[in-house]
Amino acid sequence: MNELIGKGRAAYRQMEEACSLLVSSGNWQRVGTSDIRLFLDMYVQSLLLKMAQANGSVSGDMKRFIAEAPARDVLSIGKASSGEAALNIGHKNRSFAEGTPLLLRCCVAMDDKDGTSSAQQFVAGVSQLLYAAADVDGGLTGNQLSFITGYLGGLRTFLLTRAAGRHVSGTQEAARRVDIPGGDGRGNAGARKQESVKAEKAPEKAKQEEPEKTLEELMAELDSLIGLDGVKREVRSLINLIKVRKMRKEHDLKVMDMSFHMVFTGNPGTGKTTVARLVAKIYKQLGFLSKGQLIETDRSGLVAGYVGQTAGKVTEVVSSALGGILFIDEAYALARKGMDNDFGREAIDTLVKLMEDNRDDLVVIVAGYTDEMHDFLTSNPGLISRFNKYIDFPDYTDDELMAILAMNAKKQGYTVSDEANAVVREMLQKMTVGERMDFGNARGMRNTLEKLVQEQANRLAGVDGEITKDMLCEIVKEDAIIAINGEEAAKNHGEQKDEKPEDAGAEAGETTGAEAGKEENAAEGQV
Q1: What's the average model confidence in pLDDT over 231-240?
Q2: How large a percentage of the chain has pLDDT more than 90?
Q3: Does the pLDDT value for residue 70 go beyond 80?
Q4: SS3 annotation, 413-430
Q5: What pLDDT, in 10s, does the model give residues 12-54?
Q6: 156-161 CB contacts, 8 Å cutoff, 24+ apart
Q7: Are 404 and 461 spatial neighbours (Cβ–Cβ below 8 Å)?
Q8: Which among 204, 199, 169, 207 has a CA at the least distance from the CA of 320?
Q9: Per-residue pLDDT for 446 more than 50?
């Protein structure tokens, strides 16, 4: 065990060296004033707990590893009364291990500016840390392997796309960038900024060229969303309020001064962004907002630079949202506990003032996990009073997720057979609470459909005869088994299907007495 902890500490030191370079070069001070090692320790422990959650439990040895591998046990994992208590701590701090870590984004920005290679070193440290942790309980499990390859794959994809000068997910990734002032050292800072602005504005221009939908069409689109009955009621209530306020104005009656800023709470993939986009368009059709655009951002789109620069960045983002909705995802990241010197506080203070100054033609929607959003709203005395509408987005039920799968498949010209649907439903039913959270609701079903389509293509590529239109459209049980459980499971399924009754009978004939009776009873039970 001591040897594994030693490997964990060596991996940690690799990441720590990259962080030290951020500080010594002055680049970290351009992002925040908090202790960078506090960020690192919280990230490391949250990440290890997330992997433990994917594996289903935390053993005593794993608790010790998580507590002792980083420089400090900042989450007090070593004092946790049980593995379940440790997982609860990880759940409360899960935001530190989600998405591309802030420290890695800072390393990439520094590498772009100074020509260093700290990002590769940081990712190498993460890789060594995860594999060392996986050996703690006796060897790498399937769940751990899946988590490690998926997580490291995401980090390496981020590095590759940044190196190629592209963004992983268009405008949203552009908003997540951490740009260190000073350009690339060759006078190209202005050109790079212009490229970023163009990347953000291009999708907006394309949207403006699309024909606007009528209010009736937008309401029908809202009603067509699967599930979310409570959310739809809340949105309709807001729409009714705006309609009546408009009628009172037309009759020269007093209109109560009200705030229409909102808080969306819920887990990832529950439709928060989709509903926010619809609300923006509906508000425009009602005449409540002048443009109806939705500007999406998060912490990295609002916080940057030295003291005073964050305020300017927030002002720029808010200005781009005037006439529409500013949607701030994972807003709680602006007000993390224990980070009082962080520039996120400056972003919140600036946001509060701008919300008040532009309340007649701006709606701000902040979104995130329920518990963390409470911390965010209480971080500034004037913040919580600006939001008087709270809408909770519950997780989808199994039936709703299956309906989402069918809907997405139909949109893409596919049908999923009943047998394949049964395999997907079984996957949902077997998920632990932690796995269900990581799955991501509707987002997880979109990913599942992509896997099904991939496996269908692999199967059809091996067909010797004619491939019909129906074959191209149908996803079958075999596709689902491989997509969800792997090729070995599909192979076992095929062997069971090909097994002949007479072979089973011959094997049974070779047994005698009580053994034959046991096998006969077992066969009857399977039927």
Answers
A1: 91
A2: 23
A3: yes
A4: CCEECHHHHHHHHHHHHH
A5: 998 999 888 888 887 776 555 567 888 888 889 989 988 888 7
A6: 156/123, 158/100, 158/104, 158/108, 159/108, 159/119, 159/120, 159/123
A7: no
A8: 204
A9: yes
The reported pLDDT for the residue numbered 210 is: 66
Give residues with Cβ within 8 angstroms of 464, minimum separation 6: none
C-alpha R_g of the chain: 27
Strands 325-328 and 294-297: parallel
Residues 175, 298 contacting (CB under 8 angstroms)? yes
The answer on pLDDT for 334 being more than 80 is yes
Joined together, the tokens standing for residue 240 give: 């009714």
Residue-wise DSSP of 198-220 = HHHHHHHHHHHHSPPPPHHHHHH
pLDDT in tens, 495-526: 555 554 444 444 434 444 444 444 334 333 33
- Give the three-class secondary structure for 475: strand
Whole-number Å distance between alpha carbons of 66 and 47? 9
Taking alpha carbons only, the member of 272, 202, 184, 192 closest to residue 234 is: 272
Q: pLDDT band at residue 470, thresholds of 50, 70 and 90?
A: very high
Residue 11's alpha-carbon distances to 70, 102, 129, 180, 492, in angstroms, are 9, 18, 5, 26, 39
Rounded to whole angstroms, the Cα distance separating 49 from 478 reads: 34
Structure tokens at 316: 């720029």
Q: Residue 304 and residue 177: Cα distance in Å, rounded?
A: 10
Which has more pLDDT, 95 or 459? 459
- Residue ranges of alpha helices (H) inside 415-500 are 418-430, 433-439, 442-461, 469-473, 477-485, 487-498
Q: Is 198 exposed, middle or buried (0-12, 13-18, 19+ CB in 10 A)?
A: exposed
Q: At what angle do helices 83-92 and 36-55 cross, to 10 degrees?
A: 120
Please give the helix or strand (H or E) that residue 368 lies within, else none: strand 363-368
Query: Hey, what's the torsion of the CAs at 234, 237, 241, 246, to 10 degrees?
Result: 100
Q: Would you state the structure tokens that stand for residue 39, as one six-digit string?
A: 């960020």
Q: What is the DSSP string of 154-190?
A: HHHHHHHHHHTT--TTHHHHHHT--PPTTTTSSS-HH
**377-417 per-position pLDDT tens digit:** 887 777 888 888 888 988 899 999 999 999 999 999 999 99
Question: How far, in Å, CA of 133 to CA of 141, rounded?
Answer: 11
Q: For residue 305, give every residue at least 6 positions away whose Cβ sits within 8 Å of its Cβ, in sequence order, or none.
A: 30, 31, 181, 312, 313, 343
Contact 134, 47 (CB under 8 A): no
| pLDDT of 11 above 70 | yes
